Amino acid sequence: MAHLLIMESPSKANTVKNYLGSNYKVVASKGHVRDLPKSTLGVDIENNFEAHYINIRGKGDLIKELKKEVKKADKIYLATDPDREGEAIAWHLAISLGIPQEKAMRVTFNSVTKSVVKEAIKHPRAIDMDLVNAQETRRILDRIIGYKVSPFLWKAVKSGLSAGRVQSAVTKLIVDRENEIRAFVPQEYWTIGAVLNNTEGKPFEVKFYGDAATRNKIELPNEEAAMQVVRAVEGQKFLVADIKRGKRTKNPAPPFITSTLLQEASRKLNFQSQRTMKVAQELYEGVNLGSEFGGMQGLITYMRTDSPRISEEAQAEAKAYIVGKYGEEYYPKTPRNYKSGANAQDAHEAIRPSDAKLEPLAIKKLLSLDQYKLYKLIWDRFIASQMESAELATVQTDFTCAGYLFRASGYTVKFAGYMALYEESTEDTAPADDNMRIPVVEEGELLDAQSVTPAQHYTEPPARYTEASLVDFLKEKGIGRPSTYTPIITIIISRNYVKREGKSFVPTPLGEITTKLMCEYFPDIVDYKFTASMEDRLDDIENGECAMLTVLNNFYDGFKGELDKALENIGTNDIDLPAEETDIICEHCGSRMIVKNGRYGKFAACPNYPTCKNTKPLAKTGDGLVEKVPEIAPTKCELCGADMILRNGRYGSFYACSRYPECKFTKQKTRSLGVACPQCGADIVTKYGKNKTVFYSCSKYPECTFSSWDMPTAEKCPTCGGMLYRKKGKNQLVCKTENCGYKVDIPPEETETNDNDTEA
Fold this sequence. Notes:
The protein is an alpha+beta fold. It is built from 16 helices and 35 strands. The two termini are 39 Å apart.
């Protein structure tokens, strides 16, 4: 073997294997191999913030295997993801595997296609230490905040809480929005709609606008003001006073960047950000399209980017498709280019199809439903971004009656342009009359009104953040970066600072109390402006414009004072964390049960404990936590005859008598393998040992003593006819018949990996 290529993801490695010759070996690191220790801070603050990295637990065997491959290789290519995190992984690999600097060649590719991969191999470079330093600075900052502030929260509120440089600021955003909603005082206002008939008798609606003489808008704050207008125009003719016709050009949206992809997938596909990024990762790493479409193919470019830039080759592909499919008039005179935002990093292209010729419908049967939906969304958006603008014919018609002005407006599509393929959605749907058709009317006509109807309204409080609007805010304010949007949302939900109600985010009592403490003692950390400025400093490190140590020292100088003050004041105010109530009523005492955390997760408990010790298991649904309906065993209790219900314990699932604690009979839950016992012919079942380790035994145990750590199968040994077993932890079938020794390797079970999205 001459060349070794090390990647992060096993699935991406499998894709790239097909592109390179036999003198390349492609292996995967499965993400990071080194990190800061979990048990200690791991950062020597007094010694220039030196980080003490250790090999990640469970990666020892992998590192040994990779070291063997490194020793055999003449050239070593580190092809981890093309971002800060990927650069840091390449650096850690070079150190932990002992790769000499002259042999460590860094390659990156924005899409996993044969031509792009082979071209990248031709142009290796050294590891970019500016990128590594930017990632390491982020890691050290997050570690210091997490390990220094979290113990303060444990003492002040409860154990298990955590603080983070970004998660705390984002939680505060959601808490602040909830406080705005609570403080909001609705204001009354009225509108008036009139249904008119044109001269041909076709009805259409007009809206009250204001004063006919001055054309100024008039607000209607109450019913009296509205009724004054209604009484004045009732029974009167409406004059067609003015018709304004015009043209409006509507331009396509840019191709996706990470933030806009997350927003649009939420709005159009109802995908949560975690689901969107998981599917995007699959499309980027490669999908097997069969021989017709070239086998394993990466279908989209790298999905963590904030630049809408696209290459000239991609523009040419889009032009060829648009002209061939729609005609020359659907392609603009000059190719469209889009500028990045102020905070954008321009390292990667926009998210686009790797090959625009692969139409979504042509490969639909080769993709999962989620993959097809997201690929189509990305493909449509990219092609539309290169198409001609749409032309709209607009019309605004003013009507006067009794000195008041009424108005109707709308538009029709004169030339569809990009709208023939795709139209961007928005967080709020447009008013219904923006696209209304107005029957033909002429200036000077007098029209009758079918009806004049006033309507009462109240102003609405600001909307809660959805995933789409939150990501939009984070992008606009420079909080986080493309690789961190999804982990931020995942963390604040998993830590119970925020919960979902439909599509909206709502802070929990825990989130509100934690935010209150953070605002009091660590105002910088929860200030989104401070968080955004820190992202800018990380960008400066990446661009070689600022030293890592300068950023860390400047941060810690202010942070240490806040931390010392917090630790001095801890315990001076008792924090009373309100209990989270459920809709479950305790059948013993009639109280509303509350949520508690136990060894095996959340459960409902009576608030009158210890007087009432009633508890119930909980299940998580789209509507929140509800009482879990227990699974009933197919057999009755062997001691008292009552129903047996499923419970979870240290050694896995088991059935317990429903009359517990009066009756304490239990029986382990088993699952049939559908394989006959080689000793007695009964079913073989799955069982659990200590620490939930799986083993297999005869269902007639202890009458039959058959058991095995390896999984019995229904297959027979071709040599001796005995039972074949699947070896534990190996992709291998073996025969255990004495003196046989038959064994054969089998294909590994497919697994899904998402080796990025690890930092918040």
